[in-house]
Design a protein that fits this description.
Structural class: alpha/beta
Distance between the termini: 12 Å
Strand content: 25-35%
CATH architecture of the largest domain: 3-Layer(aba) Sandwich
Bound molecules: NADPH dihydro-nicotinamide-adenine-dinucleotide phosphate
Helix content: 10-25%
CATH class of the largest domain: Alpha Beta
Number of strands: 15
Largest sheet: 7 strands, mixed
CATH superfamily of the largest domain: NAD(P)-binding Rossmann-like Domain
Number of domains: 2
CATH topology of the largest domain: Rossmann fold
Radius of gyration: 20 Å
């Protein structure tokens, strides 16, 4: 059975040599344990933060220990009365093909609801992040102009579609013409902006948002945030969900100071962590599931095949290789 270890704390963008693939003996479950076979493994931008030896809202990874993330696994052997062979579960698990668990933190998934990888995306933490970030901080009103960055990604594509469901004008910012076309044609966003080719991003946002920006769902931070802030309306809401443009920086670049704009526009800018809202997961998942069933919401997945591709898939997030949720199929 294969495992991916964390071998080296990267400076800058992670590389394949920061990880090591090893083979181990197949583990066998003790009394009260289950044996889990990973089926789909999530790779996520925030894992980059855990590669730093810094205090954060989640423990840093330890060198020479397995990586971990959310996984959809199948119970292949059970010595725990709460689980049966054949059950599918999600949980924060190690990057191992096979592992044992006492069942703590595992949630059974209803395989009739959606295909397995969806439980790592639209019906998992990324869908919840989109829904709850908008709900708790965004306070969307019909007619608002909503801007979202990382717009063709896992969180961003759900954010924009919820905006459409709520009757907003949606503008998405993404890194390629293909992604821009996709969010306009498949998701019906009013406008997509390619931040890699826009000559003057601030102006491109002003042109796309003729009534200004009421809500900005920020997945990327940095210069894109600066450009959106220059276009906000009175009482705008800015959701600081992610800052992927900074995750590989060794020195955080200094930009224009936001306080002047925030005061003048009496705007709210608030950090958001999905993990602080566990008590709201149930209703949020029911709503996301209902929209999926009604066809109001769709989703993309970039499925990379092969357990040994985990490091490559993870690094691909920082190169914009994915449309929608990036997962590895074991
Ligand atoms: P995505 O599916 O959006 O994948 C990452 C995307 O980020 C890439 O596809 C790429 O798209 C874009 N990107 C990469 N580098 C840069 C850059 N330098 N500048 C701008 N864009 C870049 O990932 P997720 O949907 O899983 O996560 C989106 C964001 O939300 C992340 O910042 C993540 O950390 C955050 N997040 C926060 C949570 C919370 O609780 N606060 C929970 C979950 C996610 P492109 O081609 O467009 O550049």
């Amino acid at each position: 059975s294969k495992t991916v270890l964390f071998k080296n704390r990267p400076a800058g963008k992670p590389t394949i040599s920061d990880f090591e693939l090893i083979s181990e003996e197949t583990p066998s479950p003790g009394e009260g344990e289950v044996l889990l076979a990973a089926r789909y493994i999530s790779v996520d931008p925030y894992l980059r933060g855990r590669m730093r030896d810094e205090e954060s809202y989640i423990e840093p990874f330890k060198l020479n220990h397995p990586m971990e993330s959310m996984v959809v696994a199948e119970v292949v052997e059970s010595r725990n009365t709460n689980f049966q062979k054949g059950d599918h579960v999600t949980g924060m698990l190690q990057w191992k093909e096979l592992q044992t668990s006492r069942g703590n933190g595992l949630n059974k998934v209803d395989t009739d609801l959606a295909p397995l990888p969806a439980f790592l995306g639209v019906l998992g933490l990324t869908g919840l992040t989109a829904y709850l970030g908008l709900d708790k901080i965004g306070k969307l009103r019909a007619g608002d102009t909503l801007v979202v960055s990382g717009a063709a990604g896992a969180v961003g594509s759900v954010v924009g579609q919820i905006g459409k469901i709520k009757g907003c004008m949606v503008v998405g910012i993404a890194g390629s013409d293909e992604k821009v076309r996709h969010i306009e044609e498949e998701f019906g966003f009013e406008k997509g902006i390619n931040y890699n080719t826009a000559k003057d991003l601030k102006k491109a946002i002003a042109e796309a948002c003729s009534d200004g920006v009421d809500v900005y769902f920020d997945n990327v931070g940095g210069e894109i945030l600066d450009a959106v802030l220059a276009n906000i309306n009175k009482d705008a809401r800015i959701i600081n969900c992610g800052a992927i443009s900074l995750y590989n920086e060794t020195e955080i670049p200094v930009g224009p100071r936001p306080e002047g704009i925030l005061i003048k526009k009496t705007a709210l800018m608030q950090g958001f962590l999905v993990r602080d809202h566990v008590k709201d997961f149930g209703p949020a998942l029911r709503q996301l599931g209902a929209w999926l069933k009604e066809g109001e919401l769709t989703y993309d997945e970039t499925i990379v095949e092969g357990f040994e591709k985990l490091p490559e898939a993870f690094i691909g997030l920082f190169e914009g290789k994915n449309m929608g949720k990036m997962v590895v199929k074991v």
